[in-house]
Automatic annotation (TrEMBL):
The keyword Transmembrane applies. InterPro entries: N_methyl_site, PilW. NCBIfam families: IV_pilin_GFxxxE (TIGR02532). One of its GO terms (biological process) is type IV pilus assembly. This is Prepilin-type N-terminal cleavage/methylation domain-containing protein. Pfam families: N_methyl (PF07963), PilW (PF16074). It comes from Simplicispira hankyongi. It comes from the Bacteria. PROSITE patterns: PROKAR_NTER_METHYL.
Length: 294
């Protein structure tokens, strides 16, 4: 006689307990994954914003530092009667219009200029310097090593770079005056100028102060701004990320004007920027040409 082996299954209660434990494990795992994804997205946003700021400051810094520069004539025996030519200029000039010595370059162009609230076709910051050639080695040919803000090498005598904020993009127009985007997700772009009073410099007590474009000291009372009094440029940018963040109500960042801005309120920010990471970047550059005052 053969005996049938005993067989046992799970009860309904055991099955339900197993399913519940499995579901709880999945919920915990999904929650951990979502938190990890949010943290990873925030870190990626912060890294991307820092990279964008580093790139645009490198581009702008190169143009600002070069602004106003002109070719040095290092010949020790240069005759005083030699004609003034574009490629034969004697120096860095603090004059308001550094190219006024060139009658064949109309119109004269200031080395640095700006608009606090530029309208269509205008720019927040405009820069210019001489495009001259130098001898290259080992070929010995004369070439220009200068580039505008877009990396182009224009054939024009003067290289210009002009910057403006347009529809959330920081754009630059090179010597061809065709603006192109440098970086996106720009919430604010502000420029201040470091000016030095010539009278104070002559008196032996030079003073430097920050002003906006409207308060650059005039050449004469009621006249046009004396851009030659500008010795440096401060650039401030506010960039924002792409990743929505579950941030506490009332979270703020400090803008270019030093005030706190609520990142979690559509009353303070556009809907596309609400609950996004915002970072403020600031850098100061000295103009290469402005070494003399008074």
């Amino acid at each position: 006689m053969c005996t049938r082996p005993l067989q046992r299954g799970v009860t309904l209660i055991e099955l339900m307990i197993g399913i519940a434990i499995g579901l709880m494990t999945i919920v915990v795992a999904m929650g951990a994954m979502m938190v990890s994804r949010g943290v990873s997205g925030t870190i990626t946003d912060a890294s991307q914003l820092q990279q964008q700021a580093s790139y645009v400051f490198r581009v702008m810094g190169q143009q600002i530092r070069q602004s106003g520069s002109m070719r040095l004539n290092l010949a020790a025996n240069k005759a005083a009667t030699d004609p003034v030519e574009v490629d034969d200029v004697v120096a860095f000039s603090p004059n308001t219009e550094i190219y006024s010595a060139f009658p064949d370059i109309p119109p004269t162009i200031p080395s640095v200029a700006g608009k606090d609230a530029p309208s269509a076709g205008e720019y927040k910051l405009s820069l210019a310097y001489q495009n001259y050639q130098e001898q290259s080695f080992p070929s010995g040919t004369n070439i220009s090593f200068f580039r505008d803000c877009l990396g182009d090498q224009p054939s024009a005598t003067i290289i210009q770079s002009q910057f403006v904020l347009d529809n959330g993009e920081l754009r630059c127009a090179g010597s061809d005056n065709v603006p192109q985007s440098l970086i996106r997700n720009v919430a604010d772009f502000q420029v201040r100028y470091l000016v030095q009073s010539r009278a104070a410099a002559i008196s032996g007590l030079p003073t430097i102060q920050y002003v906006d474009a409207a308060n650059v000291p005039p050449i004469a009372a009621g006249g046009s701004p004396d851009w030659s009094s500008v010795f440096g440029v401060e650039v401030c940018l506010v960039l924002y990320g792409d990743e929505p963040i579950d941030m506490p109500a009332g979270s703020t960042y400090i803008g270019c004007d030093g005030t706190a801005v609520n990142m979690s309120s559509t009353g303070a920010l556009a809907a596309a920027r609400k609950n996004r990471l915002h970072m403020t970047f600031r850098s100061v550059y000295q103009l290469r040409s402005q070494g003399l005052a008074g």
